[in-house]
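Risk register update: the risk of archive-format incompatibility is retired. Evidence:
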Amino acid sequence: MMLGVAAPAVLRSAHAQGATIKIGQVVPITGPAAEAGKYAMAGAKIALETINKNGGILGKQVEIITEDDQTTNPGAVLAFSKLATNAEIVGFIASIRSTQMHAMAPDILKTAKPTMFGGTDPTLTKLDNPWLFRCRPNDTYSGKVIAEFGVKELGLKKWGIVHSTDAFGTNGMKALDESLKALGITPVVIQGYANQSQDFTPVVLALKQAGIDILSSYFTFEGDLGIFARQLRQLGVNAPWVGSPSIVNTSAIKLAGPALNDTYGVADYAEDSSPEAKAFATTYRALMKVAPDNQSSWTFDAMNLLATAINKAGKTDPAAIREAMLSIKGYKGAEGEYNFDKNGDGLHGYNVVKNVKGSIEFAKHIEFPS
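Archived output:
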C-alpha cells in the first residue's frame, strides 16, 4: 500500500473504540520543518504497516494519531496536550527538536506514558523524567566523534564552532568544546545565532577573521543551515566542515546544494552502516523517491521499539511498557543497535559520513561504552 504522507488524514483513520492500539505522534505538518515532518511520518508509517501485517501489537492492529507541532515550541506543547487527552493512546512518538522536547517535558511527565523522542540534547534524559526514551545518540557522543575525527583524522587545530542558541545548539557546542579541550584544543572562535535567521554575514566574517582551518556546527533547522552554507562559501570560507547530523539531512542538502559538497557530518543514520539500515533505505526510497535520513529512521525505530516493548510487557500498562523498554538490549534498528540504559538512552555511538556531490557516503562508525 502506498502512503499519502503529505496528507495527515491518512494517519487518522476512524476505528471503533478499543479496536486498535493507538500511538500518538507529534510532528511538524506546517511551518519551516514541514518537509522534514513528511519524512518523519513516513518512517513511522513504514514500521506501522509491517507491524500490522505481522499481527499488530497484542493481537490488535495499530494506528498512529498525529498532531501538528507547527514547527514551534508552543505548537509542540499544544499538539502533545491534544494527544494526551486521548486515554486510548498508550505511547507517543515526540520530536526530533531538543527545544521542543524541553517544552513538552513537563506535560510528558504529567501524562506518564512512554514517549520516544529524537532530540539530542544530553540533558533531556537527565530531567528525572522516567517516560523519555531517546532513539538517537545524544550529543555527548556527537561532540566526541566530531572532535576525534577533526583532530586525529583530519589533523586540524584552529577550530571555529557555530551553534544555535537554543538548548540543542548550546549544549551541543558545550559537549564539543569539552571534547576538544580534552584533546588539548581550544576553539579560536565560537559563534551563536538565533534560529530562523536570514543573514549569517556577521557569523561568517567572525570565522574568516579568526583564520579557522576547520569548522564545526550545531544547526537546529535545516533552512538555517542552507542559508549559512551558501553565505559561507560566497564570502570565501572554504575550511573543512564537520557538522552535527542536520548537515546531512535531505532538506539541508536540497537547500544548500553544492555549498555542502565535501563536508563531513556525524550521522546517527547512515545507509551503509548496517544491513538493517540498508533494508530500511530500500523500502523508504521506493516509497518516497528520495534518500532516507534521520528524520525518518528514528521514527521507524521508535514505532518498532514501542511495539517490541508493549508485546514484551504483555499489556498496555505504562509502567510495564517502561520496564520492558529499559530491558531492551541488542535490538538492531535502522539507527543502530539499541541497548537502553537507566536514563532512557538507547544508542551510544555515531557514524561519520561525507557529502560527495550531494550523495552521503559512509566513512566509519565510532561506538562508546553505554
